[in-house]
Amino acid sequence: MKKILCFFSLIFSFSFSQNIKLEESNGILLNKENKKPFTGTLKDGKDRQYFHKGRADGKWLSFYSNGKLKTIENWKDGKLDGKYIVYTEEGKKYMEIFYDKGIEDGHYKLFNLDGSPRIVGRFKNGKATGKWKRYN
């Protein structure tokens, strides 16, 4: 019985440690072997990217080579959806923008290196709208 449990635990751990070959086709990420849409997490160093049925989905994180957070992206059904934040290599917030189904929609903020606002405005359906402020 111990040998059987040991065997299954080895198979189980191997199946999660092996690399899956992926390819992109018409905007869908596919398992290269069986051509089925990929669902899971891609890891590259500290970067994390999630896919559901071959499309970008959930919160993506990317990092600079120094280990500091570079971007936080929110995806839904292959399109940016929600808050998108970019940080400098020193870890300071540089830009913040909102997306709705892949289109800029909501507030936009660009920051100076000291953290103060540089440009503040809004997008509606991908177009700049309303009063935009530029700070010195």
How would you characterize the overall build of this protein?
By secondary structure, the protein is mostly beta strands. The chain has one domain (34-134): Histone H3 K4-specific methyltransferase SET7/9 N-terminal domain. The chain contains one helix and 13 strands; from the N terminus they run H-E-E-E-E-E-E-E-E-E-E-E-E-E. The protein has one helix spanning 2-17, and strands spanning 22-25, 28-31, 40-44, 47-52, 55-56, 58-63, 69-76, 79-80, 82-87, 93-100, 103-111, 117-124, 127-134. The strands form three sheets. Strands 6, 7, 8, 9, 10, 11, 12 and 13 form an eight-stranded antiparallel beta sheet that branches. A hairpin with a 5-residue loop joins strand 11 and strand 12 (117-124). It is flat and about 55 Å long.
Number of discrete domains? 1
- The low-confidence parts are 1-17
Count of alpha and pi helical runs: 1
CATH class: Mainly Beta
Indicate the CATH topology: Histone H3 K4-specific methyltransferase SET7/9 N-terminal domain
Number of strands: 13
What share of residues are in beta strands?
Answer: over 45%
- Spatial separation of the terminal alpha carbons: 73 Å
CATH-level-2 architecture = Single Sheet
Query: Which class do the helix and strand fractions yield?
Result: mainly beta
As a percent range, the share of helical residues equals 10-25%
Shape: flat
Mean pLDDT figure: 87
Radius of gyration: 20 Å
**N-to-C order of helices and strands:** HEEEEEEEEEEEEE
The largest pleated sheet is described as: 8 strands, antiparallel
